[in-house]
TrEMBL record:
This protein's name: Protein argonaute-2-like
Organism superkingdom: Eukaryota
Protein species of origin: Dermatophagoides pteronyssinus (European house dust mite)
Signal peptide: none
GO molecular function: nucleic acid binding
Pfam families in the record: Piwi
Domain Piwi span(s) in chain numbering: 331-624
Lineage of source species: Eukaryota, Metazoa, Ecdysozoa, Arthropoda, Chelicerata
Gene3D superfamilies the UniProt entry points to: 3.40.50.2300, Ribonuclease H-like superfamily/Ribonuclease H
Length: 662
């Protein structure tokens, strides 16, 4: 993410961008021979069928050279002399059994194009690329591998591809960087060498030039795999038009004046560490934090030296915070170890400090001080969080900005929805924490979040119940329901109901409510660069109609940057689901972009709208809380999880306050 340049506002400008899409072309007058396949005995499992056919083609490679199998047919560029197939028996081991299958082919005809033959291009490409490239279980083809034997892992740099089946087909090539243990991609590991971590970071955070060099190399590698079927991939990157969106006006208008309001009194604070620490590093941490808060116009004063607190039971935790309350200290930094930050001890400490004694707290991880204390943005983030927790208000979008839109902030609710999958080691079923976050104020900064757990992914009924509860909360505060609701859904990973259409729930409460909703893919593989191979400016928006056959769906991508040095960049894809307000395309794009400017972690532009980011954070937090509780005291049943792990909190920045249900 990159800090907002408030002087870039003004008229939109257009630019030509290059992408990681490439055009496909097909040689004319090719002949495709098609043969139906009969396997005896019959087998229903598609994976087994594919494995059988791969072995059949391989063991008869002299006759079936460059053949392709798909959905019960073998396709070939040359005529197959069936009676020359000498080995039509395939052995397949299933468990402890070794089964034999007989394969017979029957000529089905010849065709003059891949489309006429009924070939699925995505499956064709995958079939031939898989013959030459190592396929990782997550669908990534390995191109470069960096082994680290002592860690028992490798860093894999690979690619994925997607065929866009339009009249003039395109291929989208994406870059993937993963840890690999020799069998599967790994996401969590107990320890890893600095060398492996650095290699992963360097590859993950490569700039646009290196990434597009990679795309070009992958294009050549893929073309080499599939050219026998008369397919060529253009060497030139696909070009299209982009628009540079302008930033909304922010109040205050400078990163050095980051608060709309802040506490004016002196804040007495203390630091308690529930894990041993380095005194010199802690002293530098304290001084840097106080200095940063003074720059932001706040006065923090430490009351006593940082203490190490060695606790052995719950009653000792309560005593510690009771003593702080007596000494008139209301803000406490709590230093925890990385191990305890996600377990039940963390929850007990937080509960005693906030719920039982009314103290405002900020957690930090002691082990991370080694590298955090040298990062200026670390202290900016802490100062921001602290201000919010003490009742401050972050910078806001100038209310007059919304005059250009067909809704009024005072009668609009902005919503984010998210679903997060997790597991408990003693319960076999997948669990899903659901979160919906909804704004309650005119600046869209103060929100209420409701989190609940289900055994269903994207549980339609649960989402509707949560959304209805939030509408009632809005009515409780304003005496009326919102006239407009803007909903940002995270991208779903299932093929049926991709998201719950909350418009139906809103209309059932008040049919006059207008709903505008989006599906958002924050991990979109789409990338853009300028014609001179430099990165596009932050806020570059590209219409994605070029990848649709009829252009009926409104889709666009907005470019952002990641990290303080903004080396790595990314693209977020927005798809319009509903638009009762009938906004223009320009209004829709600027609405989404403006919502990415609302404060979340630092004074930077987020890659997704604030409400969606919060929903994703709270869905993950609910899962971690459930896992931490289960590690300390085993949860006996799914019913107990569903009943006990639900929450309704008011969110103001990082401050969470339980909401009374009465």
């Amino acid at each position: 993410m990159k800090s907002v340049d408030h002087h870039q506002t003004g008229k939109m400008s257009n630019l030509i961008v290059k992408s990681n899409y490439f055009r496909l072309t097909f040689l004319p007058n090719i002949i495709i021979y098609k043969y139906s396949v009969r396997i005896s005995p019959n087998i229903d499992d598609e994976n087994d069928v594919r494995n059988i056919m791969k072995r059949f083609i391989k063991q008869n490679s002299s006759v079936l050279f460059e053949c392709y199998y798909e959905n019960g047919f073998i396709y070939s560029r040359s005529l197959i002399i069936i009676n020359r197939i000498r080995n039509n028996i395939v052995n397949l081991r299933k468990g402890f059994r070794n089964e034999r299958f007989t394969i017979n082919l029957k000529y089905n005809g010849q065709f003059n194009s891949l489309a006429e033959a009924g070939i699925d291009l995505q499956k064709l490409f995958r079939f031939f690329v898989e013959k030459q490239k190592k396929l990782i279980n997550n669908g990534t083809f390995a191109l470069n591998e960096y082994p680290f034997p002592k860690d028992g892992i490798s860093v894999i740099v690979g690619f994925r591809f997607l065929i866009i089946p339009i009249p003039d087909p395109l291929i989208l090539i994406s870059r993937q960087v993963i840890f690999y243990d020799g069998k599967i991609q790994i996401f969590e590991y107990k320890s890893i060498s600095d060398e492996a971590d650095k290699t992963f970071g360097d590859e993950l955070n490569c700039g646009p030039k290196k990434e597009f060099e990679f795309f070009r190399k992958c294009r050549a590698e893929i073309e080499n795999c599939i050219e026998s079927f008369g397919i060529k991939i253009h060497s030139e990157l696909f070009e299209t038009n982009g628009t540079l969106l302008f930033h909304p006006e922010i109040i205050p208008d400078s990163p050095d004046k980051p608060f709309f309001s802040k506490p004016s009194n002196t804040i007495n604070f203390a630091i308690l560490c529930f894990h041993p620490f380095d005194s010199d590093k802690m002293e530098k941490f304290e001084e840097s934090f106080v200095k940063k808060t003074k720059k932001f116009g706040m006065n923090f004063e430490k009351c006593f030296e940082t203490q190490f607190v060695d606790i052995r039971n719950d009653s000792e935790i309560a005593t510690v915070f009771q003593n702080l309350k007596i000494r008139d200290i209301h803000f406490v930094f709590i230093g925890l170890s990385a191990c305890s930050s996600s377990d039940y001890v963390f929850e007990k400490i937080k509960s005693n400090a906030t719920s039982d004694h009314g103290l405002v707290t900020q957690i930090f991880i002691i082990e991370k001080l080694d590298w955090n204390i040298e990062m200026p943005e670390f202290y900016s983030s802490l100062a921001i969080k602290s201000c919010l927790k003490l009742g401050g208000q972050p910078n806001i979008i100038d209310p007059t900005y919304w005059n250009a839109f067909p809704f009024k902030p005072e009668s609009t609710m902005v919503v984010g929805t998210s679903c997060y999958q997790f597991k408990l080691d003693n319960i076999r079923k997948n669990l899903f924490s659901h979160s919906i976050v909804a704004s309650m104020d005119t600046e869209f900064c103060q929100n209420i979040s409701i989190e609940r757990v289900s055994i269903k992914q994207n549980d339609k009924q649960l989402f509707e119940e949560i959304f209805e509860s939030l509408l009632k909360e809005y009515h409780k505060e304003h005496g009326k329901y919102p006239k407009n609701i803007i909903i940002f859904h995270g991208k779903r990973r299932i093929h049926d109901d991709q998201y719950t259409d909350l418009k139906t729930t809103a209309k059932s409460i008040d049919e006059r409510i207008k709903v505008t909703s989006f599906s958002i893919d924050k991990s979109s593989p789409i990338r853009f660069i300028k014609n001179d191979d430099e990165k596009v400016p932050i806020g570059t928006c590209v219409d994605l109609k070029f990848q649709q056959s009829n252009g009926s769906t409104k889709e666009f991508a907005i470019c952002s940057e990641i990290g303080n040095e903004a080396v790595r960049y990314k693209t977020t894809k927005f798809t319009v689901i509903n638009d009762d307000s009938r906004m223009s395309e320009t209004q829709i794009k600027h609405l989404c972009y403006a919502m990415c400017h609302i404060y979340f972690d630092n004074f930077c532009i987020n890659d997704v709208p604030f409400s969606l980011e919060l929903a994703q954070q709270f869905a993950k937090k609910a899962a971690k809380k459930c896992i931490g509780r289960n590690d300390i005291n085993r949860i006996d049943s799914i019913d107990e999880i569903i009943e006990n792990f639900s929450r309704k909190v008011r969110i103001h920045g990082y401050l969470e306050v339980p909401v009374d249900d009465e």
